[in-house]
User: Fold these one by one.
Assistant:
Number 1:
Amino acid sequence: MGHSAPKIAVIDGIVDELKALLGADLLQVIEHADEIGLVVARDAIVRVMTKLRDEAQYQQLMEIAGVDYLDRAERFEVVYMLLSVTRNHRVRVKVSTDEATPVPSVTSLWPVAGWLEREVFDMYGVIFAGNNDLRRILTDYGFKGHPQRKDFPLTGFVELRYSEEDKRVVYEPVKLAQDFRNFDFMSPWEGAQYVLPGDEKAPAAPPPPPPPPAPAAAPAAPAKVEEAKAAPAKKPAAKKAPAAKKAAAPKVAKAPKAEAAAAEKPKRIRKAPAKKTEDKA
């Protein structure tokens, strides 16, 4: 059973065709997993996109994304995803920039790029020259900073809440209940191979106490003796059971008295004939 996603065709010789088309504007070609990435000069992005749309038949701009490489001089990458409907093929175009250098806008080629560029600006702070409506699109109006930057704190700078007193939403500096903790990606089974910050100030741990001496187990013998002494003390408690039976015996003994009374009645009947014989004599 095939996958539900459409299969993208692999075009033979497409890389050589794109190299010849873009010329000096193409800085690098990245081929991986049947995908092609083109790294182009930032100032030539509009010219490159025009050639890819009109001559290479990549008609649709599917997405614009941002990436932050904090250790680079030009830390931001703007990534454009293009789709060719007629050739059933995709290509990825990349440009690099920093916080202050703007990237030319491609809204003149694809009007949908207006919202996509606003998203990259909102999340990363990349400026697009030529976008006449470059404002935040995902965060709030008074939001400070750009959330997708690697140096942006996880808690942000400000927080908002609804004030019942002011009857409106108010912005306040972030106040954490505890200090922000920096987590280290170390194995929880092995532990850190270095001294954690703050541990160098702690006093050295005292050596473990020596094991208890062997005679310490001697006091256990008297305990057994006490248990043995305590065992006979329980025997008188067991003798109470017959006493309880004796107390209950009189209640059960009422039945023999009734039998004895019934046994005496026949004796009285036997004496009656004896009197009759004496009268006859």
Number 2:
Amino acid sequence: MKTRLLFSSLRWFSSIALLALLARSAPAGAQDWAKAILNKSPRHQEWVKVTHGSRTIDAFVVYPEVSHKAPVVLLIHEIFGLSDWARSMADDIAAMGYIVIAPDLLSGAGPNGGGTSAFPDQQSVTKAVSGLDADIVTADLNATADYALKLPAANGKLFVTGYCWGGGKSFLFATQRHDLSSAFVFYGPPPPTAALSAINAPVYGFYAGNDARITATVPDTKTAMAAAGKKYDPVIYDGAGHGFMRAGEDPTNTNPANTTARTEGLKRLQDLLNGK
């Protein structure tokens, strides 16, 4: 009897250890709660391949349920790659009446030529995103935007939004893409000051109060954008932390300010997209 109990206990502890190991090694895109949101969406979602030169990018597209042609929103993922949450964020914006395209900027960079989902863990995804060539990222974003604008359901209007690492890239993209209607920067750093004069579109910032690493850049950016004669409208959400758009709907979130910031940020994004 004691032997059987000992065996059962060892098997239980082994199972717990295995689950812990799997949790640590799970790919960055494995967010079951975000995947569940996607699975419940009534909107059409599809994967497409975007090519330019020798590059092929996998991109996730979500269509709104509307009877007319819609504007395009280019969504740039976090440093965690094109995760389930990034795709669910694309679905959230599509629900506002927009075609959203989200490229996996790690396409071809993963094991066996895969993208985000091919990496073994979040740490390796983060390292890979951090090491992406800036010129290739810009080319990938331009190719993805061009692809989406040619969709039969698109009306020719283009917006860009990005989160975390993608927030910085969305701000930088505004210096390089001159047919943008607006750029929405979520807790991302600004481009070099010298590049700001090339921006044509208004830039709207969404920042966390408890994120000094990024939010401390806002005053100087505001001054530099004003000096360049460019529109820059930042909002700081008190008490929220970096990544509040994701954390604010994560079931494990323990900071109510993240939830509030996400709710208010979504409302502001929708109002701005709709020209309010």
